[in-house]
Structures are given as structure tokens and as C-alpha cells.
Amino acid sequence: MASGLQIQGDESVLLRVTHSNLKSFSADIRFSLQMTVESVKEKLWRKCGTSVNSMGLQLYDDTNTKISDLTENSRPFGFYSPLDGYRLHVIDLDPSSVTSGGWLEDTSLVEKYSISEEAYEKRDGTFRKFKGKLTSHNPSTPGNKIPDNYMEDLCSNIKVGNRCEVEPGEKRGAVKFVGRAENLAPGYWVGVQYDEPLGKHDGMVKGVRYFDCPPLHGAMVRPDKVKVGDYPERDPFEVDEL
């Protein structure tokens, strides 16, 4: 133990820490040899929850042989000659400690909050009510039937031959089809021939031809994605700024 009385500089050791009540707890923690045993306990209290006054410490070497019980709080930690790789074992002496009984590790011991179906229905701001409001505003939500006239009103100003711009991406082209598509989801669709090969097909979708256009120039989109108006074909060589 003589070497423990000659602590120079700010030497430290890296120890593996285990706990008597927390079987899954194992941490590598660095300690200064100049710390008192009480300071070591305070550091460990923040790590594992065992109070300083209820904590016992045991030091084991790298062969798992116990070297010493750290019983004197005022002594410097280096007095006990710990080395890198040694194990510092925390013993919780308080039978009513938060670490006892497995409460911090076994979640099955924790009483779960429950609420009756009737009480849940009366609450505002629940996920169920949010989901119901969401589906009422968005008929395309899975599990919510889409009516056959879905977005028909948005097609009133979209005519075949109109120039258009499609979101997202501000893709420009011409309207080639407006109406219901028998092999797509219910509601109204707009077929567009893009000016550039930004589409998915040539106007044929799932074996049904809705219009003709060059390969990869065609797309079927919902009317709310389409704006008609003065959208001339872009010059690929146009420079916005010199």
C-alpha cells in the first residue's frame, strides 16, 4: 500500500464498475487517484443512483480477486493502489433503495397506466380523434373509401390541349387526358405529356392507353397538382443570368 501514499500529478485509472443490485449495469469510468473515497462515491451516485451514505465499495484486480474494501471515506483513492482494468464493485446497503427489487431494470414490475374505452373517447386531442379528422379531410388515406367524383370540381378549368405546369418540380407540358381512369384509384385524373422525359410511360398505364406521347414523357396526376395557363416550353439553352 506504500505506493498509494505517493500520488503525483493528476494520475488516473480506468476501472470497470459493477453494482450489487443492477445486474445489467457495467460501465468503464475513469477516476483520479487524488480523489477521496467519498468523492468517488459521489461520482458513482450520479451514475447508478445509490446514495453516498448507503454505498459500500470493493476493489477487485484483473483476475477478479478482491483486493480491498474501501471503508475510509477520507482516504485518497490512490491509497488502495487501483490499476487500469481493475473492477470497482458498488454495494447498495439500503434495502429500500431505488436500485433494489429490480425496478430500474425489469419494466414488467412497473404498473402500467390504463384508461377505459369510454374515458378515452371523451378526451380531446387524442391520436384517434386526430386520425379521424385527418381521414375526413383526405379521402385517399388508406382504409377510407375515395368517392368516384373525387377532385371532379378541380377539373372544370382543365381542358385537353392546355399548357400546364405540374408539381412538385414545376414540370411543364400539355394536358392530354382529363377524367376517371378505370385501372387507377377512384376519382379524376389528368394525363400530361411533359416537354422533357420526366414521366413514367408513353400514355399507357397498366395496359390501358389514355393518350399517346413519346416514351417517358407521360404521367397521370391528380388535378390538384396541375396548374394550366401560359406555360411555354422552356428553352434548354436559356440562361437566367449572365
UniProtKB/TrEMBL annotation:
The keyword Metal-binding does not apply. SMART domains: CAP_GLY (SM01052). It is found in: Cytoplasm. GO terms for molecular function: alpha-tubulin binding; microtubule plus-end binding. Pfam families: CAP_GLY (PF01302), Ubiquitin_2 (PF14560). Its main location: cytoplasm. PANTHER family: DYNACTIN 1-RELATED MICROTUBULE-BINDING, TUBULIN-FOLDING COFACTOR B. Belongs to the TBCB family. This is CAP-Gly domain-containing protein.
